[in-house]
């Protein structure tokens, strides 16, 4: 059994990497919020990441999801069914999760670039962790409304450990959400802004995923403009290493690169 791969990026913020995908644990006291949950084949690694912080899955107050693609929803049903963990996301993403809508990227588009060795290797790995299974998340719920009973400022934060602030970044999927951790200066960007992916050129830099993964690439580009306004200096993407620098600069870099996507990168 392999060791869990993770590191701390800020006070009480820990990033873990499964099969070419990241998830994040946010700690507050003895409780945790999990952002995303890997592939289904990463489920054991998700549990191990929780235990690596000296906590148990019962200490999860909730999972919050960036979006309901199979590389981010893998452990959700297990965490809900075994430990009663609530599964929250933007209301626009719930149909993707419960399976009434399917906005996942096209396998045919991936097939067209399988001749590239990195893509072929990645494709073989993800098939092994559940890429070909269509898994739904029947217990997906929209974010709870803050009950206004506490005396904390109304900053749009969820009343969960680490007080993550959802930032709507639709495009990759209709309800794609990034999460800002204002006090830690961290933006968890999911697939709205990544720093590496087997289907991208082999550099580590802020980038949009290829358009064939997106439900609406024009909207994904507009989401980068939203992220330009976010005040944080650590980018934790859904795919690729953590990137240090102002999020506005990361978004600009990705916007610039998106304008120069070569024909070679298009499927
Ligand atoms: Zn992804």
UniProtKB/TrEMBL annotation:
<dbReference type="InterPro" id="IPR050855">
    <property type="entry name" value="NDM-1-like"/>
</dbReference>
<feature type="domain" description="Metallo-beta-lactamase">
    <location>
        <begin position="20"/>
        <end position="239"/>
    </location>
</feature>
<dbReference type="Pfam" id="PF00753">
    <property type="entry name" value="Lactamase_B"/>
</dbReference>
<feature type="region of interest" description="Disordered">
    <location>
        <begin position="138"/>
        <end position="173"/>
    </location>
</feature>
<dbReference type="InterPro" id="IPR036866">
    <property type="entry name" value="RibonucZ/Hydroxyglut_hydro"/>
</dbReference>
<feature type="compositionally biased region" description="Basic and acidic residues">
    <location>
        <begin position="257"/>
        <end position="267"/>
    </location>
</feature>
<feature type="region of interest" description="Disordered">
    <location>
        <begin position="237"/>
        <end position="267"/>
    </location>
</feature>
<protein>
    <submittedName>
        <fullName>MBL fold metallo-hydrolase</fullName>
    </submittedName>
</protein>
<dbReference type="InterPro" id="IPR001279">
    <property type="entry name" value="Metallo-B-lactamas"/>
</dbReference>
């Amino acid at each position: 059994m392999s060791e869990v791969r993770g590191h701390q990026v800020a006070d009480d913020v820990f990033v873990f990497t499964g099969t070419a995908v990241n998830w994040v644990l946010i700690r507050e006291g003895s409780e945790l919020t999990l952002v995303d949950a890997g592939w289904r084949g990463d489920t054991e690694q998700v549990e191990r990441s929780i235990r690596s912080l000296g906590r148990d899955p019962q200490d999860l107050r909730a999972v919050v999801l960036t979006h309901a693609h199979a590389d981010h929803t893998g452990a959700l049903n297990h965490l809900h069914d075994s430990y009663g963990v609530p599964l929250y996301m933007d209301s626009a993403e719930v149909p993707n999760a419960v399976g009434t809508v399917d906005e996942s990227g096209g396998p045919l588009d991936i097939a067209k670039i399988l001749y590239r060795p990195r893509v072929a290797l990645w494709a073989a790995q993800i098939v092994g962790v559940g890429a070909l299974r269509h898994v739904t998340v029947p217990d997906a719920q929209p974010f709870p409304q803050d009950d206004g009973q506490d005396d904390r400022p109304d900053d749009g934060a969820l009343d969960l450990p680490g007080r993550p602030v959802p930032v709507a970044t639709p495009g990759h999927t209709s309800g794609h959400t990034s999460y800002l951790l204002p006090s830690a200066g961290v933006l968890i960007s999911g697939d709205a802004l990544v720093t590496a992916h087997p289907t991208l050129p082999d550099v580590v830099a802020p980038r949009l995923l290829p358009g064939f993964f997106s439900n609406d690439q024009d909207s994904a580009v507009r989401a980068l403009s939203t992220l330009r306004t976010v005040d944080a200096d650590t980018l934790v993407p859904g795919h690729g290493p953590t990137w240090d620098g102002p999020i506005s600069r990361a978004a600009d870099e990705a916007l610039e690169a998106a304008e120069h996507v070569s024909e070679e990168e298009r499927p």
